[in-house]
Amino acid sequence: MKTSSERILTTHVGSLARSHPLLDAMRAREHGEEFDAEAFQRLVGTEVTEIVRRQAAHGLDIVTDGEQSKLGFFQYVVERFEGMESRPGRLSLAPSWQLEVDMFPDYYAEYLQKYSADSGPSGANVMVCTGPLRYTGHDALQRDIANLKAAVAQVDVVEAFMPAAAPSLFGLNEYYASDDEYLGAMADALREEYLAIVEAGLILQVDDPFLIDLLMEDPGAGKAARQAVADAHIEVVNHALRGIPPEKVRLHTCYGLNHGPRLHDVPLADVVKPMLKVNAGAYSFEVGNPRHQHEWRVWEDVKLPEGKVLIPGFLCHAHNFVEHPRLIADGIITYARLVGRENVIAGADCGFSSRAIYSPEVHPSVVWAKFDALAEGARLASDELWG
């Protein structure tokens, strides 16, 4: 994993908006309409080439494929696992979401309608485990790897990463005798994806908003109980990562896709120590979110382990304001002075289209302006940090 040895490097979390032609093709496939599989794969390849080109043109050093081939940052596993299917419907809200909905019912009535499960290509949005899990996505993964590597070969960037979902209790379990057994099978299946990404020479990003979700406020479970569940989750993630060098792995965790008031977010102080237990070389987390901008102070008390890197998110994925480069630079400098300039990579809070969706919360044109601001902020910070 490259580090900021000479200047502050820039990156993001991964997902970027899919074009409407690509979304239309996904919709046709998902609804069983007339569909040309070869034409779809050519379109995905073209979109990846363009999305990588634009990342480089807008100043990102560490790039990815924008998850262009995927229905969502974890929903894609349905296509790559035997023993899992999608069904119509919607699962109940997590307790922390429900607290927000109860506090701001009018806001969330509009929000949940606008960003409902029906706003993307698929009408089947509940994942269900129906049999023994087995990874069957080797061909799809190799296409993604080939598309990304071909696109990166055409641009001047520092490095490339590929996101993959962390093991979690996706949807409903109708097969395994216990959640622990289900999670173990999930971890073993995802491990095949992790290994292939690393063996291809790419940095693996494990997308794990589930860690923070397990620590979030829950009226039905006390803090100690939530911590115990989170610790068990970390053991499962590390089981999936076993044998993979930490310097080949970056962990992303965040507060999810709830772009609301967020009065019930767990503080980073309760997240940071569990997060650092994951066997990764870098850790990506939210900073641009105004509920968490003050939490740089956590690193006054928590010592970053040697050889580890932070990827603070200086771009908020929940609003269409473009952050000022000077604000970004100030944030970078703050973290650099706390943990060392070589241990900071400037990133974003979360993906900008974590689900394939026709109307992402942040308009795609605004995302590119945000990346411009991130690159300029990193330049300003580098000028100051390296003199």
Structural account:
It is a single chain. The protein has helices spanning 20-30, 37-57, 77-80, 95-103, 105-114, 138-152, 179-199, 209-215, 223-240, 268-276, 298-301, 325-339, 364-386; strands at 9-10, 62-63, 81-87, 126-135, 159-165, 172-173, 203-207, 249-252, 282-286, 309-315, 345-348. Helix 2 runs parallel beside helix 6 (138-152) and helix 8 runs antiparallel to helix 9. Helix content is 43%, strand content 14%.
Task: Please describe the structure with a list of short key phrases separated by commas or semicolons.
single chain; globular; alpha/beta
Extract low-pLDDT stretches.
none
Mean pLDDT value: 94
DSSP strand content: 5-15%
Helix content: 40-55%
Question: Biggest sheet, strands in spatial order?
Answer: 1-11-10-9-8-7-5-2
User: How many distinct beta strands?
Assistant: 11
Shape: globular
Discrete helix count: 13
Cα radius of gyration in angstroms:
20 Å
Distance between the termini: 25 Å
Class per helix and strand makeup: alpha/beta
Biggest sheet descriptor: 8 strands, parallel
> What is the chain-wise order of helices and strands?
EHHEHEHHEHEEHEHHEHEHEHEH
